[in-house]
Design brief:
Elements lengths: L5 E3 L6 E3 L3 E9 L7 E9 L8 E2 L4 E2 L3 E3 L1 E2 L6 E4 L5 E3 L5 E4 L3 E9 L7 E10 L7 E2 L13 E2 L25
Parallel strand pairs: 6-13
Antiparallel strand pairs: 1-2, 3-4, 5-8, 7-11, 9-12, 10-11, 12-13, 14-15
């Protein structure tokens, strides 16, 4: 009775669900005494489950947290494809970055029509920056110079906590 919801082969009764909704599947005899006569059964077609689109913050730094979400159906579970990089609470999507690397944060619906279905977002966990250990000549005489260095990550800037005592070039560490 609703061909948008289900189709039926008129010769065999083979039914194919097409979209969510309700319809009646009807069997009709058109010839013979008292015809036409019909009988039917109601059919409800449930929608397929939907994992939706996953969203959350990426990249994260080691030790950072974020809560991931999905536009899909409720009741799914969260997982990380690389538990060494990030852990995720299976019920809430609360992610904790554990080590540098990449993983997928996945939302899976395991029951219902069309299940299981999953959606994910890639997560990159960046290493935390490292200022390292600073070294240079100390003490210096007034007017003396030295170039300070650091074992840390490149790209930092140099500064002096007391510019009246010593100045430093912010890019080179020249004191």
């Amino acid at each position: 009775t609703n061909g948008a919801v289900a189709s039926v082969d008129p010769g065999t009764g083979f039914v194919t669900a097409l979209s969510a909704g309700s319809t009646n599947i009807t069997y009709t005899i058109n010839t013979g005494c008292g015809s036409p006569v019909s009988a039917f059964q109601a059919l409800t077609v449930n929608p397929n489950v939907n994992a939706g689109t996953v969203s959350g913050t990426s990249p994260l730094c080691i030790g950072a947290t974020a809560t991931y979400s999905s536009t899909g159906d409720a009741g799914g579970t969260w997982s990380s494809t690389n538990g060494a990089v990030a852990s995720v609470d299976p019920g809430t999507g609360f992610v904790t970055a554990l080590s540098a690397g990449s993983t997928n944060i996945t939302y899976t619906i395991s029951s219902g029509c069309g299940a299981p279905v999953s959606a994910f977002q890639a997560l990159t966990v960046d290493p935390n920056v490292n200022a390292g250990t600073v070294s240079g000549t100390s003490p210096l005489c007034i007017g003396g110079t030295a170039t300070y260095s650091s074992t840390g990550d490149a790209g930092g800037t140099w500064s002096s906590t007391n510019g009246a005592v010593a100045s430093v070039d912010p890019g080179t560490g020249f004191v």
